[in-house]
């Protein structure tokens, strides 16, 4: 028993190694949070013209949520994250993937930051409740899946570039199969997140609407 405990202690991952092993997902997460803050900053420093546009889009968004069917609600949650996930997957198989994939979480964060910041600043408590239930809860799962998708696709594009430099092309077929499988699994999480969002929206959006 003591021998097993000693082996377990020896295999413990040091904090420094944990950061190095997960540096990509950490950076992607910071980029997403930076996008949220940037979206909030845009709203706080927006001129009247931009605020009027955001107001019109936000009110249209809330009104549509209140009267949407479950299917329409599902698509409104699913399509934005699915498009970004597909972009990440496509560029993950290219040599210039890193130039695009790093921007995906930042772009996603800006969109969330704009709408959440506007709702909170314009409708206070009503906006806060609507943010949490209708927007943030579904986004937690879809954003986690999107960040993992970006991380895996970044690793793939780096591996492809390294193999081409070394002149190695064997084993590509199996790796592509696993690549597709990983992206399909992560896309299924986005689908489940959209299903959750559509149910919450269908049942609670009208009751929580701050308008």
What does this molecule look like?
- The chain is mainly alpha-helical and 211 residues long.
- Helices cover 88% and strands 0% of the residues.
- It has 8 helices and no strands.
- It has helices at 2-10, 15-21, 23-44, 48-67, 70-91, 97-101, 103-166, 172-208.
- Helix 5 packs antiparallel against helix 8.
- The protein is globular, with a radius of gyration of 21 Å.
- The model has no long low-confidence stretch (mean pLDDT 86).
Feature tags:
211 residues; mainly alpha; 8 helices; 88% helix; globular
- Main pleated-sheet profile: none
Give the number of DSSP strands: 0
Q: Whole-number radius of gyration? A: 21 Å
Q: Uncertain regions: pLDDT < 50 for 5+ in a row?
A: none
Proportion of strand residues = under 5%
Tally of separate helices: 8
Kindly summarize this structure in a few lines.
By secondary structure, the chain is mostly helical. Helices cover 88% and strands 0% of the residues.
Topology, pairings included?
Elements: H1 2-10, H2 15-21, H3 23-44, H4 48-67, H5 70-91, H6 97-101, H7 103-166, H8 172-208
